[in-house]
Design brief:
mainly alpha, about 65% helix, elongated
Length: about 140
């Protein structure tokens, strides 16, 4: 038996599809341009044209981005202290309970309120520590 007869292509050699894509690239045609050319070619089989359209579609027609949701609810004037944060959270719960705000949106806003609470707490502690350090000098 001579060489690789009957065993397929040699290890490391490129298949026909890869060779065809490399030839297109050398000719200056991108895979998307090739897919568009095949899609527009009336002499190609309909299944092949549809397959080419599926390949090219994500590059030609990006998926639309969803519209951002706007959420509105009553917000107290002062939300810096514990009373203001409590009132804000109560307003949020009321809006969710009445159906004005979806549960997921209320959860996101509640998370933001918790971040705000931690920021207020950090600033308050820093101010108190600075005052104690100043008094100790």
């Amino acid at each position: 038996m001579a060489g690789n007869a009957g065993k397929g292509r040699e290890a490391g050699s490129r298949n026909r599809r890869t060779l065809a894509m490399m030839a297109l690239a050398e000719a200056g045609e991108t895979p998307v341009a090739h897919a568009l050319r095949v899609m527009r070619d009336d002499t190609q089989l309909p299944d092949l044209r549809m397959h080419a359209a599926r390949i090219a579609a994500p590059y030609v027609h990006p998926r639309p981005q969803p519209e951002p949701r706007l959420v509105a609810f009553d917000l107290p004037e002062q939300i810096g202290g514990s009373d203001g944060l409590l009132a804000t959270h109560e307003a949020l719960l009321r809006a969710m309970a009445s159906g004005d705000i979806a549960l997921e949106d209320a959860r996101d806003i509640s998370s933001m309120l918790e971040t705000h609470r931690r920021l207020v707490e950090t600033v308050t502690l820093e101010t108190r520590i600075a005052a104690l350090e100043k008094a100790a000098r």
